Amino acid sequence: MADIDAARLELEEALGTTEVLSDPLALTLYARDASMVEGGCALVAFPHTVEDVVVCMRVAARHALPVVPRGSGTGLAGGATPIGDALVVVTSKMNRIIEVRPEDRLAWVEPGVLNLDLANALAPLGFTYAPDPSSQQTCSIGGNVNTNAGGPHCLAYGVTSSHVLAVDVVLADGTMERFGSEAPEAPGYDLRGILIGSEGTLGIVVGACVRLTPRPPDVRTMLLDFRTVKDCAATVSAIIAGGVVPAAVEMMDQGIVVAAESFAHAGYPTDAAAVLIVEVDGLPEAVNAQARAVESAARDNGVRTIRVAADETERALVWKGRKSAFGAVAQIAPHYHLHDCVVPRTKLVEVLAGVYEIAGRHDLIVTNVFHAGDGNLHPLLSFDRRIPGTLERVLSASEQIVRLCVESGGSLTGEHGIGLEKRDFMPLVFSDVDLGAQACVRAAFDPEGRMNPQKVLPAGARCGDFAMARGMDATQAAQSIPEGSWI
Amino acid sequence: MDLIHPVDKVGVAEALRQATADRKRLLVVGGRTHIDKGEPWAVDAELWTTQLDGLVAYEPAEMIAVVGAGLRDGELDRILSDGDQEWPYDAPATATVGGVIAAAATSPRRMRVGPIRDSVIEMEMVTGDGRLVRSGARTVKSVTGYDLHKLMTGSLGTLGVIVQVALKVRPRPQARRSVKAAGGLEMGRRLLETVPSAAAVLAMPEVVELRLEGWPEEVERQLEATDRAAGVTVVTEDGAFPSERPWEASPVVAEAAVPPSRLAELLSPPFPDLLGPHLGSWGALLGVGIGWVGLSSSDGELGALRARANALGGIAPVIKGPGGLGTDVPPGLDVHRRLKASLDPAGVLAPGRFWGGI
Amino acid sequence: MVDAGDRGGPPLGAILPEGTRFIGPVGLAANWLPGEAPSDDDLATCVACGLCLPHCPTYRLTGEESASPRGRIAAMRAVAEGRANVDATFASFMDLCLECRACEDVCPSHVPFGRMMERARVQIEPLRTRRARFVRWLGLSVALRRRWVLSLFRRLTPIARPFLPKRVRSLVPRGNPGRRVPTSVQPEGPAKGTVAILTGCVQDQWYRSANRAAVRVLARNGWRVIAPRRQACCGAIQAHNGGLRTARKLARRNLAALESADWVVVGAAGCGAHLKEYGDLLGSEEATAFSARVRDLMEFLDEQGVEPPADGPGDETAIRVAYHDACHALRAQRIKDQPRRVLRRIPGIEVVDIPDGDRCCGAAGLYNVLQPEMSDRLMEQKAASIGATEATTVASANPGCTMQIAAGLRNAGRRLEVLHPVEVLDRAYAASDARPDDRGSTPD
Hints:
The structure holds three protein chains of three kinds. By secondary structure, chain A is of the alpha+beta class. Chain A has helices at 4-15, 24-28, 50-62, 115-122, 141-147, 154-157, 191-195, 229-241, 254-264, 284-300, 312-323, 325-329, 348-361, 390-407, 426-429, 432-445, 474-480, and strands spanning 20-21, 37-38, 43-45, 67-70, 87-90, 97-101, 106-109, 127-128, 164-170, 176-180, 204-211, 213-214, 218-226, 248-253, 274-282, 303-308, 335-338, 341-342, 365-371, 376-383.
């Protein structure tokens, strides 16, 4: 039984009493992130400096407390939901942009800097920070690093992994390391790369060196609508086949367009089966060429109307509908479960049909937004969790939707992460041997297993267990464990 | 020297299991084009991947190609051309995809296409003790567990054998031009600042070669900007980039990596003069921070180059000839050791080849 | 019909590790104290997405969940689900909220946070110490309800100033407010209609110049203006601080006093917002009809039109006015463009926005007295933002904000005048009248 009181005193001593929470009601506020799962914790700490984070880790190590890092708490998979005696380390007070170096196209930021604040700070210098998830007004860079965040612009620009050159991390034993480099190559294995997307299980990010992306000289935004979903999806494929990689390709089905239009009045056609927002950017000549190619691909695939935003105001209006999607959906029912399916682009239509069918069978309303460019489908299941039995239907539908995506050749999650919610789905895509190897990687960073335990890997995955894979009998297993090997 | 030449993934797994059981040290070999990179090693056998050269899946509409790690880059390029696409890392035609990834080779067009590790989205590998392991997914975005393929990229075959990869590919640009202009670093700097969205600015001691790619109208405009900045130029349509690599005439080539703004400093006087006749030619990717430097040997001058790169915040491993990687200790050395111990418990994969004595 | 899949048993993802659960009621009775409380239906609307956080001024300053709408709702939910009590910790979380309602604007789930917070404030009233309750009773139910008490306080202030608490001393403006507005003023020509103005309590004592300017401007633009003496404090501060009964009494009195006019025009954003809610507060048809006739002063002038002055407000050089949007104008009444349009009809004026202009200044009714540290930090932030505009004048249509901003600018050593926007227009008219022939051009 961990000595919480002793840990609390040590933390208060080092951080100050106002920066450590132990009041039961105060702790309740940190029991969940934006997912549907809540847990509990024993202590919450607010470090202001790297040294503070080191202290948190050392105190936790001394008292064998699990550690759960938390940024803004916008995660949708339960990655920041603490369990049991956890020490939640909140990085919201480490929110300074430390330096911006346009000559090297990089900036160093603390983990609590909010994504949109960073982009806004870079704008006057002619730069932006490319990964722009929908939660960008609130989500933190540290959180982005831990989920390898995407956003509508990541097809052309890449996900967080392509935009973070280096990370300063405090490991579970309290040591601080810089993985990656300001230079294009660094010595050693790409620990930076494996840390990005590790959902708080390998260490606490205390600084990130982010890549500055020059703001494109020109941009054109188009709103296209279609009579059938098939035409819309075929257009997306045709655009890619035509050699265009748009800066953003967002698709919305009729259900969500109707809801968004009544809420935001952006001028979307509510009788279209599907609507596509395509944005191309670059030099003006490139923009013209790409726009022509997009229009041509659309016309070849039965587009009904093409609306091109004439100026910045109209562009904002075109995006407004898309950005109000969640606000619109909340009018259908008070609660929603946002899924995060990634499937091959060519399978979008059949997966979408499957999603509708699953929702129908479970008596749930589903609307869909997609980052069509990278096959990232976000079905939104609307429901009222106060009605008994609803949650069970939602979970059952969710499982079937995930299975459908995996069977179509897709992945479990494109941007939200595995967290708590999808741990048990991991065996759908990885074998026991795969999961054993992943457990080895995790153990290499955190041998004691105290960083955000019970997240990402299912309960059975253990390093060294690889030989007990299903289907391998004991003799084979014994033969494959070499003498004297580290287990 | 024994030679192991498996025909498929199962064969590779069996070979590694055996090697671990026998404590036989292996060097993984593909096309041998990047074989020099690494600290000196001693091995008992070579494991060739060249028979794992199948095309597993390729759908241009997905912009993803899944290939055996032994597929030659030249062959991959031919396959992707049919779909009007490319895997733009410009390796020698005889290099294997797996080898290029294991060496984390730098593309001359890196300023536009990024580092090679950003293009690997799924990987199957065999660990030192013969486990066939998969990580990643065949989708452009995925946050599913731990991305072992990130560790494997650049690992020089010391953590496992890459047997299959899914690669992000991109459309082949419609217009491609290489432009040569007289001048060195200064001209390069000027071009970098004035030519919008260039794919590469490669400065060499006497000449700068610029690569422009994109839509025809876009490239026209870039050419105009180049003319204004550089005056007399020689323009070549299509063709390989760069047209020549003068630094490769030297027996030792180091690939220095420093923050982009400091690259010019690395190669500016007085440093080149200090190296004197030991310095061959060089090529600097401005805006990226990679510089290829030809040296006459791996003696004193290599150390001087490395010290200078360190002082500027970077490294300078050798990619051709003797000289190793350098004495820089990788951050997280304990983590490195644990990773090595769990993925290659018997230490059969080129022990000692990697940074930090791994 | 639910399909359980081919294995039977619970779906994947339904089994959670020990110590975690899906959110939802725990089946225990709520721990609310007797009286009004945040409703379960309202609580159920929040899905904890967190999009409100960066818009909440107290979250921006503290980075702590308890100082954010999401956290405050989580605390309310804990009480509603029987997992926590209405205790001192709960009260401290609620008390730090400015009730600026910036969160409501951005919430995708349309959570009615303002209403929930008002009810939570009722819940925490019994927790206050006897002394605190006595002081609040004195202020809310006695002083603000009785004009003569406030008037006495104002007259005594110059003598009493050194003995006042430092906080109050720094806020209360100096100087003689001048005469009260007349009870009835006729326009020069035929009257377009009758407008009743709410003189307010704080506004009437310390910012009478704004009320006088309002009367002059309205009359000049053809309105008969009445200021019935029977009117009372609007009741907003009582309503936001747990005194709903007193608030209702005040509302009924104002209904009676102001019902005879075509329009009821209010020059204070907080009061105007509250008067527009009399319908909800009292729940009667009469109150709803009354609320429909209420207009903010600048909103009214924009809607009905104003004569553009021939001249600027007195100086030869153009003046730069930084326009401050009170939370109760911007959010509760959706007033943003209207006052700017009116001001831009004045020649020689530049109207600029304040960076992060939609963030509360920290006045928030009684907040600046009850939560001095947080209020000070917000005041400082606002003064710095205003400084960045390089304006000469600040226009603020709410006395609470005006008091706070003036104090903040004084503390920061900046010399800017803080005026009600109607005063800027009034000065422009005065300047035009003083020099009718110099200009040589006729008004539009």
